Amino acid sequence: MKTNVLLTGASGTIGSEILNQLIDNDDVNLTVFDLKTPKSEKIFKPYLSKANFVFGDISNADDVLAVSNDKDVVIHLAAIIPPLADEKPDLAYKVNVTGTKNLLKSLEKHSPDAFFMYSSSVSVYGDRVRNPNIRVGDPLVPSAGDKYAKTKLECERLIQKSPMKWTIFRLGAIMKNHKISKLMFHMPLNSTMEICTPEDTARAFVNGIDKQNELEGKVFNLGGGRQCTTTYEDFLQRSFNLYGLGKLNFKPNTFATQNFHCGYYADGDELEKILHFRRDDLGSYFAKTKAGISFWVKALATIFRFPIKKYLQAQSEPLKAIKLKNRRLIKRFFGKKLLVSA
Questions:
Q1: pLDDT band for position 1 (cuts 50, 70, 90)
Q2: How many domains does the chain divide into?
Q3: What is the pTM of this model?
Q4: 176 and 293 co-located in one domain
């Protein structure tokens, strides 16, 4: 008998990869629920004959009701993520928290035996620069100003209080096609990062469908493992080199020195032992990234590297905070030591 799977947020980076991995699975009846946008319609177009696609707003209880009947497994990814979550915190709460409430409430009534798989985030642990080795039982203290992390933490609590069968994966740094934004300067250069590719992350959720007994009622850290660990400075420098942007020669204080997130998952192998999802490492990640950069993009970036980096530097909120002598933001990005000197 086929497993009835509901996937939310299938137009996102991880969701689209889960869709790709599940779409030809003969053991699955797949229902996809997502907001109707030009992006989602384009992503879903090749698959329309192979699954049930339902467009709706997860923050609307009636829309959610339409996809809640007779489900065996739910993979819930729909969320507003940074930087939009920082720019529109009310929207992030509406989609992330209210949407999760709607989904849980509807499933509890119409699919009470469904297995609920949720994608949380490393951001719930907050700043780990000084203590980068993270374990599931560590304190959950989102960094100052991280509205996204707070919504994820609230969703985790809703799920854990629910009568549903559930598991929660706290995702590490999921890297692919990241758009450069002012958020890049919020992360201290000496932060430890454990990346995971969308392909490996998706494989964890897909493999989890058949491992409910081992996962039920537990929270796991999901990362690529020791072979995917680096520092933010090294990761960014390698990325700049691939794109032809050269050295990270930004002004001092362009990058924050505290109050972000990321680290190394000291207990991440626990999930790998159950799901066997890891195939990539830093080398394969950068090889994929390099393959996706056209000759002309790199050529133009190389020619205009200095104005590009000048423009990027101008987006730095930590640097702006110092220039404007904004004591609140200086304290947030740099702490009391720099505050005294400022």
A1: confident
A2: 2
A3: 0.95
A4: no
